[in-house]
Write a structure and sequence with these properties.
With 136 residues, the chain is of the alpha+beta class. The chain has three helices and nine strands, in the order H-H-E-E-E-H-E-E-E-E-E-E. It has a single domain, classed as Class I glutamine amidotransferase (GATase) domain (Rossmann fold, 3-Layer(aba) Sandwich). The strands form three sheets. It has a four-stranded mixed β-sheet with strand order 3-4-7-8, with no helix packed on it. Strand 7 and strand 8 form a beta hairpin. The longest helix is centred in the N-terminal third of the chain and has 11 residues.
Length: 136
């Protein structure tokens, strides 16, 4: 989709003030990197780049990776921060910050030697700002 007329139209509308949301694969796609699940997370590939230096694992509570994430650390896809988002949960950019909403949690992983950050409804996460978030 990157470079397509469709993506250029979506990005243009977003930059002009339209809202943009993605769930599941859509949340993965708008980030700079996509976890390649076919390789069991050993690789990532470029995403659409609306959010730089981030990749998302959706359905985190259902993917059975939550208990194994520490064992996956050190793999190439850990070169960028990884955000696991539980089902029935959203991480929303509003008012210049990322806030968790819903009944689950969001888990931020970065350096394999650091503890993960767990945020629940109403809590704020320190994540990269979306492209041109300083506008309007």
């Amino acid at each position: 989709m990157a470079g397509s007329a469709l993506w250029e139209a979506v990005l243009g509308a977003y930059l002009d003030g339209a809202s943009l949301a993605g769930c599941s694969a859509g949340a993965m796609a708008i980030c700079s990197h996509l976890v390649e699940f076919r390789t069991l997370g050993r690789h990532s590939r470029p995403g659409l780049g609306l959010i730089a230096d981030l990749q998302v694992i959706p359905h985190f509570d259902r993917m059975h990776v939550a208990s194994r994430v520490r064992s996956l650390s050190g793999k190439p896809w850990w070169e960028v921060p990884t955000l696991g988002i539980d089902e029935m949960t959203a991480v929303v950019w509003e008012g210049g910050r990322w806030q968790v909403r819903g009944r689950g949690a969001a888990y931020l992983f970065g350096d394999p030697d650091e503890e993960r950050v767990v945020a629940r409804a109403g809590q704020v996460l320190e994540l990269p700002q979306p492209v041109d978030s300083h506008r309007g």
